[in-house]
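Reminder: ligand-aware prediction takes two inputs, not one.
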Amino acid sequence: MILKKLPHPLRVINFITCRPTPLLSIGLFATNRCNSKCKICGIWRSEPKVDLEPEIVENLFKSKLLKPGYTTIALTGGEFILHPKCCEIISMCKEYGFNFHLLSNGLASDKLIKIVRLFKVKKLFLSLDGGPKPIRW
Ligand code: SF4
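Here is what comes back for the chain with iron/sulfur cluster:
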């Protein structure tokens, strides 16, 4: 039980050596596009539609804020897979060696399945809130 409460070894090393510790996880809200109209969320109403440029993501990946193999990137939005360059961003996560997971509402299921297969996505979080009927405005 006590072992679970110990900090990550990288945190301990950085504390001892007075180095800043990279972030353990970040949420990349890459787009405000969404193909759902959930009552609990107004992102689908946002105008204009905005997509995070892959160049900005790459600069973030190169920064000392994150560390490949340590930091986990949550790819979300809106609906992340509606980002016109979502595949480029996922490729970049893999290329830089970051752990990542994908969040989705599952509505664009064909595209989602293709992406999961293509990139061998290890963690996919599907938001399946509500009853049998979709909850939309
Ligand atoms: S699926 Fe998610 S991002 Fe899209 S409207 Fe619903 S809660 Fe918001």
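The longest strand covers residues 99-104. The two ends are 46 Å apart (CA to CA). We will return to this case in the review session.
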